[in-house]
Specification:
This protein has 457 residues and is α/β, with parallel strands linked by helices. The chain is 32% helix and 21% strand. A hairpin with a 7-residue loop joins strand 8 (157-163) and strand 9 (171-177). Helix 4 packs antiparallel against helix 5 (132-138) and helix 4 (91-118) packs antiparallel against helix 8 (279-290). The model has no long low-confidence stretch (mean pLDDT 93).
């Protein structure tokens, strides 16, 4: 490679919405932006078990846009493969990553044990992708950096992390490499979010990587979702059922808690038991108390909101709650039904047409959540096929991702036309829609890179 050229390896979230990993190879340095886990389709999930097409030990540093599993979940695997460098992120991002990675490892260990005990895995023995020890070996690599400041990374390379909404600690990343500006959007948040502030916007980008999760799709305002939730709760309780909400434990779960707490305070829904069943979610609640600069909640509202919920940590407690037939509201991970405590509830309740399953976030292709939304009347979990007869509802206005118009607006403070624009982190239809939107709005051309492709700048 010529000294002045830069190679970009698209190791994830290209042509798909999961597994974010982008490797910049410049001179003698290799920098990885995000290190996410593939989720959803089986052919994607299998890639988590493959060695990436670059040696882990050759990567000099990792930069994290935020803490979600599809942006951080491969870190323990990469460390296990030989990565020895620093992993940079904001304070909340690294705190959330630690919570999520420990939760992910624990779930994988538990599922491997159950598969081996009940004999439903084709692997003998079934093993986790990584375990708690691997996570423990990963955390010492974490290096905390402040947002909104240019920091030297290597000779001729500096970096800045800027507030981006979406979840606590989320940022877009700017890399200045010998005067050329690379901008990685990460996941862009909403303009009007009940919990978080609006995303900041880049002012310059020579090479731009922009997510497209909701390309071509438009969210209603979050406030319009509140009466829909009110109606769903009241209708479900009136028929003697319970409301189950699969939710990402970071930020969306807290937003749901805030909405339900306010509805009860205003006497718009009955005061029935409300459960936050996520060890990870409870840890994130503590993080909300410590990160006042990153969100809108006052300290008093944060404490009062939490007092309305029973926060579950013990799996034994989960089993007792799921067997109780009285109406209740349960928020539990994972958000796309790919694992977590929500499956334990559905194992018991999925047959009951009196209960409601409410989706409040994006359901990636190939996930149980997407299949149920597409009409499947059963799903596979714990080695068995479980009939599904619950009521289904979906509210897209509560997504943590910018919609089509918000994605386009995120570009409107750029003072230059980027040399290259790569549309990533989206399914093909969404990416194509955003490409068209960028052309129509700015008259800029954009590209849709393929997974494992390499571009030279």
């Amino acid at each position: 490679m010529k000294a002045e050229s830069i190679n970009i390896h698209f190791l994830g979230a290209a042509g798909t919405v999961t597994g974010s990993k982008y490797l910049l190879e410049t001179g003698d340095k290799k920098i990885l932006i995000d290190c996410g886990l593939f989720q959803g389709l089986k052919e994607l999930r299998l890639k988590n078990w493959e060695y990436p097409p670059v040696k882990a030990g050759d990567i000099d540093a990792i930069l994290l846009t935020h803490g979600h599993l599809d942006h951080t979940g491969y870190l323990p695997r990469l460390v296990k493969q030989g990565f020895k460098g620093p992993i940079y992120g904001t304070n909340p991002t690294l705190d959330i990553a630690a919570i999520i990675l420990n939760d992910s490892a624990q779930i994988q260990e538990q599922e491997a044990k159950r598969a081996n005990r009940e004999g439903y895995s084709k692997h003998s023995p079934a093993k986790p992708l990584y375990d708690m020890d691997d996570v423990e070996n990963t955390l010492p690599h974490f290096k905390r950096i402040p947002p909104a400041r240019w920091l030297p990374l290597f000779e001729g390379i500096k970096v800045r992390f800027s507030y981006n909404g979406h979840i606590l600690g989320a940022t877009f990343i700017e890399l200045d490499i010998n005067g050329k500006r690379f901008v990685f959007s990460g996941d862009i948040g909403r303009t009007n979010d009940l919990l978080l502030y609006p995303p900041l916007k880049p002012k310059k980008a020579d090479i731009l990587f922009i997510e497209s999760t909701y390309g071509g799709r438009f969210h209603p305002d979050e406030s319009k979702a509140i009466p829909v939730i009110e109606k769903l709760v009241n209708e479900t309780v009136a028929r003697g059922g319970s409301l189950f909400i699969p939710s990402f434990s970071v930020e969306r779960a807290q937003l749901l808690m805030l909405i339900l707490y306010r509805l009860i305070k205003e006497n718009k829904i009955p005061r029935i038991p409300m459960i936050m069943d996520s060890p990870m979610g409870s840890d994130v609640l503590e993080l909300f108390h410590r990160t006042r600069d990153w969100h809108r909640l006052s300290e008093n509202e944060c404490f009062e909101m939490c007092s309305y919920f029973r926060v579950v940590k013990s799996f034994r407690e989960t089993i007792l709650i799921r067997e109780d037939q009285d109406p209740k509201i349960v928020i539990a991970g994972s958000g796309m039904l790919t694992g977590g405590r929500i499956l334990n509830y559905l194992e018991f309740h999925a047959k009951n047409p009196q209960d409601t399953l409410l989706f409040v976030g994006y359901q990636a292709e190939g996930t149980r959540g997407r299949k149920i939304l597409d009409g499947d009347k059963s799903f596979k979990a714990y080695g068995k096929r479980i009939p599904f007869n619950m009521q289904i509802a979906i509210i897209e206005g509560l997504s943590a991702h910018a919609d089509h118009n918000e994605l386009l607006a995120w570009l409107n403070e750029l003072k230059n036309k980027p040399d290259r624009i790569f549309i990533v982190h989206g399914e093909t239809e969404a990416a194509e829609a955003l490409k068209l939107g960028i052309k129509e709005t700015y008259n800029w051309e954009a590209e849709l890179p393929e997974l494992y492709s390499i571009e030279t700048i």
